[in-house]
Amino acid sequence: MRLLALGGLLGAALAYLFDPDSGRRRRALARDRSAGTVRSGRRQSGRLARRVSSDARGVTRKLQHRGQKQKPQPNDATLARTVESEIFRDPDVPKGKIDVNAENGIVFLRGEAERPEMIDDLEQQVRKVPGVQGVENLLHLPGEPAPARPATS
Predict the structure, then answer these.
(1) Residue 123 structural domain
(2) CA 40, 41, 44, 45 torsion: positive or negative?
(3) Which phi and psi (to 5°) does residue 136 adopt?
(4) What is the pTM of this model?
């Protein structure tokens, strides 16, 4: 039964490709499409090979330089400006209502945010900025009192 179905499919494919009216066009189209598929596969495999190679080179460089001294941490003003440029990229963040300060690598966020989710999102974004040692989130919702800065000992 399976052999009969396979024979039927093969016969239909041959009739489709060798039809006297459109067979030549269909064969040319199949040849062009298969060549395009091969070229596309070659390009994708080339990209993959370059990516694997560059990833391996990066790991090698990290291993070679693992004992070397890290870059110096940015000063507090530079860190605060870097954090501002990161969090204010989103047009939904109210630039005039949020202040960013940095002291010894700790970033302080002060002001009003429109939603509780925005407060959490901004804190997570700040934590991802290189050079940030910690985040003191003093943001609050409109109509709520501003949280007090914890006392330092």
Answers:
(1) 76-140
(2) negative
(3) -110, 105
(4) 0.51
Give the residue, 57 or 73, on which the prediction is more confident: 57
The answer to whether residue 147 is domain-embedded is no
Helices (H), the chain: 2-17, 23-64, 76-87, 116-127
The H-or-E segment that residue 137 falls in is: strand 134-140
The DSSP output letter for 94 is -
> Which residue shows structure tokens 């003003």?
77
Identify whether the C-beta of residue 83 lies closer than 8 Å to the C-beta of residue 107: yes
Mean pLDDT, the chain, whole residue set? 90
CA 44 to chain CA centroid, Å, is: 20
State which H helix or E strand residue 153 sits in.
Answer: none
* 151 phi, psi to nearest 5 deg: -70, 140
Same domain flag for 58 and 15? yes
CA pair distance 101, 136, nearest whole angstrom: 10
